[in-house]
Amino acid sequence: xxxxxxxxxxxNSRAVRLALxxxxxxxxxxxxxxxxxxxxxxxxxPANTTPVLMLGGATPIVGVRPVLDYLDEVHGExxxxxxxxxxxxxTRAEVRRLVDWFTDGFGADVTEYLVGEKLMKRYRPSxxxxxxxxxxxxxxxxxxxxxxxKYIAFLAMRRNWLAGDRLSHADLVAAAHLSTVDYLGDVPxxxxxxxxxWYARIKSRPCFRPVLSDRAKGLMPAPVYADLDF
Length: 230
Known about the structure:
The protein is about 50% helix and about 5% strand. By secondary structure, it is α+β, with helices and mostly antiparallel strands.
């Protein structure tokens, strides 16, 4: 039995959920609000970050990159030609580069500013960083989003998927981050048709259905969030 400790609007957790769907794996989902510093969760991961994947009573696998690598090493061959990590070393390196790009770059430049300010701060007590959104961060996040969307469009114009010919972990991580921003209606899709076409393809995959059913308490999604024909 797999157990995934996650948060519904943590993009790294979403990337793992998408990967589990692509691998055809089921995991029990345990929602974690890291700002509450749950003692049991801290015993699993003292860094107090999601995602964490548990394999029965084994050692927890912590973090999006280790979890994705584990899933590929254990279950990747079962996907055959659809393996989410390509066989060629240079293409594998490109997938890892883009996973880092979206986890670190997009995460810091866009997700933390927009999702962090508009959504996550709603639920935290003021002494834990809650409160109204910082308008300067919102402005910066919106500006940064345009830059990242152009880069996604640049990649999508030259490749079938972001890292190469086939769907990979890079696409899942990028889409996971975009999906959290899209929940808020902050993605200017009409300004980046190529990026929109790429996202529409991955958004239509069965692995995305559980993510599109996520709802934030007291905050309904933008109309385009669950619309496959957006």
